[in-house]
Write a structure and sequence with these properties.
By secondary structure, this protein is of the alpha+beta class. Helix content is 61%, strand content 17%. It has helices at residues 46-54, 82-98, 107-112, 128-197, 203-217, 220-239, 244-264, 268-288; strands at 7-14, 18-27, 32-37, 60-70, 74-80, 118-124. It has a four-stranded mixed sheet. The chain has a two-stranded antiparallel ribbon with strand order 5-6. The radius of gyration is 37 Å and the shape is elongated.
């Protein structure tokens, strides 16, 4: 079964101290691109998260949002630049002395000037429980995402096959119309030759003109390739998996053959069929862009 590249998944895992929520959505993309947003101090787990996702997803852009809440997740440390604090204090004391101020330098005065002298850092604690919850939530979310992409894929498949059937029927009708194009041309050229030479027709010349025309408008090979591409398309979608690129290539090949038929046909009925076939092919092209 083919798979869509559009989907959404969400999972939440928690214990008595930690809660982890993972949300992910995917859209179409040429490759597998994963973008993760999570608390900066836990980005060390990014590669492990991506490995879980790529076990289930082959192609598409996946946006992942991870929320982590709980206690005892980080160790906070305060660092004080005592040299800078001493300089602030001396400055305040010099100001008091210079201007003969009566107020003493207080702790509050020093604290107000501590900008840049005090820094708090956070160091993630070794937490196997957090990593376990994170990977469990990621696995559950990506499985939900995958199931949704599979459901979307079923709808895509039905539409693709319906449009492909339209193309095949159009090709069959063109195949029936093709011989009449040469016969119609023969009748027209025969009539013109009769009018020009007053009833005396050079049959050899007529046959040569018709043969040249028949060779020029022959679309047998193009139709043959269209049937082959249709057969390949059906086989590929029945096999399933990450087949979007293969289908995209076949769409390009089908479009090339239709354009050739349209330029060769020299018949309004065939031209009308080509228009209908290309309309169906355009719908297939749009849908294929979303196939994994």
């Amino acid at each position: 079964m083919i798979v869509s590249m559009t989907g959404f998944g969400r999972a939440k895992k928690e214990n008595e101290n930690i809660s982890v929520t993972v949300e992910m959505k995917s859209v179409n993309h040429r490759f597998c691109e994963i973008s993760i947003r999570m608390p900066r101090q836990w980005m060390m787990f990014e590669d492990k998260i991506k490995r879980v996702i790529t076990e289930h997803i082959a192609r598409g852009r996946i946006e992942v949002l991870i929320t982590i809440e709980g206690e005892q997740l980080v160790e906070r440390t305060v660092h004080v630049d005592w040299q800078l604090v001493d300089a602030y204090y001396r400055l305040l004391t010099d100001v008091r002395s210079r201007f003969h101020l009566t107020d003493d330098v207080s702790l509050r005065d020093v604290v107000h000037m501590l900008s840049g002298a005090v820094e708090m850092t956070e160091q993630p604690l070794e937490n196997d429980a957090l990593l376990s919850l994170l990977l469990q939530a990621t696995k559950e979310a990506v499985e939900q995402l995958k199931h949704m992409r599979e459901r979307e894929g079923k709808a895509l498949l039905a539409d693709l096959l319906a449009q492909l059937e339209t193309i095949e029927q159009g090709a069959r009708r063109i195949e029936q119309l093709a011989p009449t194009v040469v016969a119609s041309y023969r009748d027209r050229i025969h009539k013109r030759m009769q009018e020009f030479v007053q009833g005396v027709v050079d049959e050899q010349r007529l046959l040569m003109e018709v043969a040249l025309f028949a060779e020029k408008v022959d679309i047998h090979e193009e139709l043959k390739r269209i049937y082959s591409h249709i057969e390949q398309f059906r086989r590929i979608v029945s096999e399933g998996g990450a087949v979007g690129r293969k289908l995209d290539f076949l769409v390009q090949e089908l479009n090339r053959e239709m354009n050739t038929i349209g330029s060769k046909a020299n018949d309004r009925h065939i031209a009308s069929e080509v228009v209908e076939m290309k309309s169906a092919l355009e719908k297939i092209k749009e849908q294929v862009q979303n196939v994994e």
